[in-house]
Amino acid sequence: MTMMLLDANGDMSRCTPGVHHTDVGTRHGTHSDVCGRRAGEGAWARQGSSYDESVADLESPEVEWARRLLAGDAGAFTPFVESFQSKVFQYTWLMCAQREDAEEVAQDTLLKVFESFDQLRDPRLVKAWVFRIAKNYCLMKRRRSVYAPERELSLDELMPGPDSDGSALASRVPDNAALPEHQLLQAELGHELRAALSALPESYRSVVLLRDVEELSTAEAAEVLELSQDVVKQRLHRGRLALRKRLAGYLQASGEKSV
Amino acid sequence: MKNSEPERHAHGPADASCREVFERLSEYLDGELTPADCAHIDEHIRDCPPCVAFLESLRSCIHISHSLLAEQPASRPLPADVREKLEAAWQAALQRRGA
């Protein structure tokens, strides 16, 4: 298995990393304010063409567990299994929409991972490696009946309308954690979000899940999905726009009902 | 409009500069643009409330996606026999690696 195809996008220079973009649009910050790295993002995405050895201390626990497992440390077995069982189940649950399928895929994935563990040359690649195996099992397991037909998302259909300033979503959901009294709304929003996700073409859904839920970097997601980083970025943007459009409409409608 | 102000664009989806920004907002939020491209968008949104509002709404959507989609039902614990299979497979892989 080849695991080093991570740099299809070349060595792009990036905006200042290290600042999370929590204040976008509220204070019109400079690029260092808004162009922060994603929480949990790996070194591949931040550094472009080559893995950055200087960020070894920032590696995820999974990397350390993989390294210990390769060295025969049985103490890393349980945390590794539990972590990836949870992550893979979450991904496959949202991809397959069937609990039984998701659990089976998670088990099959873990078994394949350990059967071929001697092929993992670099523990820093473990996350992309595991998700790539999960993705392949998902494809084998998928049930066409619950999948939206494959199609391309057009930017034109995702542009805001002439009467929309795009603020409805932001103004109605300023901070999930700050609104405990709106748990019902959150539950409805979660239901709508899952429906919107299910309606996405599979190729977009997978990118959104890997990037925005599992927090893989662009390079890692490209490796998992065997796509170029440019394609991952394009699908991520269009997938996000499609979700935003659907949620904005839902929130506007629910707001009107409550008036 | 004061004469000293920079030339304003029309603002909105029909405007070419807004569309250019619109196409790159995810890369902007993810910190994946070059500093020059990032500065270009900074410059644009400084004078474009619709793009700022859209940017905020997209950021909210990403936040909601992460927080709500991550709240999936937990997977049931692995059956003991499956766990034993995994451990046996790992041990076998270690032996091959050491061989």
Description of the molecule:
The complex is a heterodimer of chains A (259) and B (99). Chain A has 259 residues and is mainly α. Chain A is built from twelve helices and no strands. Chain A has helices spanning 31-34, 43-47, 61-70, 77-96, 99-115, 126-141, 155-158, 167-172, 183-199, 202-213, 218-225, 229-258. The longest helix of chain A has 30 residues, at 229-258. Residues 1-57, 144-149, 165-176 and 253-259 of chain A have low confidence and may be disordered. Chain B has 99 residues and is mainly alpha-helical. Chain B has one domain (16-98). Chain B is 64% helix and 0% strand. Chain B is built from five helices and no strands. The longest helix of chain B is centred in the middle third of the chain and has 21 residues, at 49-69. Chain B starts with 15 loop residues before the first helix and ends with a helix. At the A-B interface, helix 4, helix 5, helix 8, helix 9 and helix 10 of A face helix 2, helix 3, helix 4 and helix 5 of B.
Tell me briefly what this model is.
The complex is a heterodimer of chains A (259) and B (99). By secondary structure, chain A is mainly α. Helix content of chain A is 58%, strand content 0%.
Features:
heterodimer, A: 259 residues, mainly alpha, B: 99 residues, 5 helices, 64% helix
**Which H/E pattern describes the elements of chain A?**
HHHHHHHHHHHH
The tally of helices of chain A reads 12
Fraction of helical residues of chain A: 55-70%
Cα distance spanning the termini of chain B: 78 Å
What is the succession of H and E elements of chain B? HHHHH
Number of domains of chain B: 1
List strands and helices in order, with pairings.
The complex is a heterodimer of chains A (259) and B (99).
Chain A: H1 31-34, H2 43-47, H3 61-70, H4 77-96, H5 99-115, H6 126-141, H7 155-158, H8 167-172, H9 183-199, H10 202-213, H11 218-225, H12 229-258
Helix pairs in contact in A: 3-4, 4-5, 4-6, 5-6, 6-11, 9-12, 10-12, 11-12
Chain B: H1 16-22, H2 25-29, H3 35-45, H4 49-69, H5 80-98
